[in-house]
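Late entry, flavin mononucleotide complex.
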Amino acid sequence: MSEQPQLLYKHRHVPGINTIDVWMAHGGYENFKKALAMEPDAVIEEVKVSGLRGRGGAGFPTHIKWNAVPKNRDVEHYLIINADEGEPGTAKDRDLMNGLPHLLVEGCLISMHAIRASKCYIYIRGEYIEPWKSVQKAINEAYEKGFCGKNVLGSGLDFDIYTHLGAGAYECGEESALMSSLMGERGMPRMKPPAAPLPMISGAWKRPSVVNNVETVSTLLPIIELGGAKYAEIGYGSPRSRGTKLFSISGHVEKPGVYEIVLGTPFSEVLELCGGVRKGHTLKTYIPGGSSMGFAPPTPLDYPFDYEGIPANTKTLGLGSGGLIVFDETTPIVPITQRLVDFYHHESCGKCTPCREGLNWLHKIYGRIVAGAGKESDIDLIWDICDSIRGKSFCALGEGAIWPVMTSLLLFRDEYLAYIRGGKDAMTDLTTIGL
Amino acid sequence: MSKFTEKDKARLDELISRYPTKKAALLPSLWVAQEVYGGWLPLEAMDEVAQHLELPTADVQGVATFYTMYNKEPRGQHAIEICHNVSCMVLGAEQLIQHCERKLGVSATGETTADGVFTLARVECLGACCNAPAVQVGGTYYENVTAEQMDALLEKLK
Ligand SMILES: NC(=O)C1=CN([C@@H]2O[C@H](COP(=O)(O)OP(=O)(O)OC[C@H]3O[C@@H](n4cnc5c(N)ncnc54)[C@H](O)[C@@H]3O)[C@@H](O)[C@H]2O)C=CC1
Ligand SMILES: Cc1cc2nc3c(=O)[nH]c(=O)nc-3n(C[C@H](O)[C@H](O)[C@H](O)COP(=O)(O)O)c2cc1C
Ligand code: SF4
Ligand code: FES
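Prediction complete; structure with ligand written out below:
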């Protein structure tokens, strides 16, 4: 078995680690002090050397984003933390915020220093009342100890951190929609480069803004502690996938949970870590990184699990948001895919036609198939509709919606046919799923 | 008639002070309003927020209706929200939902029991997928929920 050093979760199970005293007794805020003594660009350089890529799903190199922020302080810069975690199967940011709120707060402080931001907004999804309270308490404690506020530790710099509660809209996790929502608007996405400037130049309130995932900024602690070069030595796979990452593993496994795993660990070992597929059952398929990735075939299993993705299909089967969902042979794929279609249909913001109309059609077609009134031609129709969304949606929600559909058709076409040909009698009684 | 007390207004002012614009305090202010107005947002609530933030009421309504967690009508005392997304679905969420529907005699589409105690709703992924099935009641999570535990919880809340 490959070794799994715990960098983020080192103190996850220390009693009271959510309080600042225990956190500081375990070295808490030392990394912030270390970073604060460095020039902002020196911090970004460590991040560059570390190879850190965004943990929110897209895997974009963090240092490129950070270096795009103006190097002066002519106007206020903002760090905006994406804690809108809503991707089905993804539960890592919640676990981190509940258990290690100071990891996030300290990560925010280090990141703010690097991008020369004096304000940070942590945008937390509306359902996450418990994580919100946990993080807000940690922020209050950081203010009391003087790590937040004016002229922090005599540096002459101000660091203010606020929490901001969302109100139930998956689309608000999309970076530009999130900024709209933060500014008090409907959570609709905006134009992206090259049609519009990068948020790092003109983001929230038209000022330089960096949006980063909860886990991305938390990873700044081990990077500062070890140094970028040492951090980059960690990893079993590609030179472009370094360090550790959190995965929430759910579904039909013996020990579901949030695991910190070294990038590039063979996928078969990842499965072993969580106890494997539940006893007496076999692997049917899995979604590697949240529902915006597709269903993966049950073989091969011994490839490096990292950003470079599953050899068979790197575009639709990447790490995504870190939500690994495992399905055993009892899983009826048609109603499961329908569930995801209905999710995206419900969450589509309606701004662009391919996504709004396409998902409406998929919703109807899956509805009739599952009700026992599907036609064989529906299979090609589903594929064509996906094709008309692919590459044409305004934001990545539309794109994410079609991967589970297309991959489920590719892998389980026979099951669709049996479902359709079998008529009503062959339909899955939904109440038997999970028995 | 205004329901906002001076204390509520001070809370709104504190929220406003966090952002570069008053408008940015809209979402948090609507949360305050929803609390003050007993769990939902009647037109007067949106009006009060609009006045305090110096925004047109129509803008406030437009924003409030976009977000599913701002309730447009009164709900029961306790909202039982059961995740029906895939990680929960494959571990028995559907049975749990139907169990609650039978027990409470309402449909899990957001219906409220006749006595106004419970509202039952299916919701999307709650981010508790590793402890499926997951249920949320008024901000508190319950995980790995069985039908028996659900019965006990409903009994306790009644
Ligand atoms: N964690 C969660 O709950 C969810 C995660 N996702 C993930 O989100 C992903 C899609 O995210 P998007 O933001 O649409 O991807 P994206 O590739 O458009 O952007 C990713 C990040 O890189 C930045 N960026 C892109 N091009 C850049 C450039 N040339 N220079 C500097 N910065 C640049 C963007 O500003 C953004 O911060 C999906 O792959 C999915 O896995 C989706 C839904 C929910
Ligand atoms: C529909 C949609 C929802 C998203 N939701 C989230 C989310 O909840 N959390 C997150 O970190 N990123 C989410 N993203 C990705 C963000 O747009 C963005 O890439 C990310 O926050 C950047 O942070 P990172 O570079 O640290 O990963 C979502 C993207 C889309 C298209
Ligand atoms: S792809 Fe869907 S969610 Fe994204 S802008 Fe278009 S309609 Fe809205
Ligand atoms: S799928 Fe139910 S909590 Fe995520």
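Chain B has seven helices and five strands. Will revisit in the morning.
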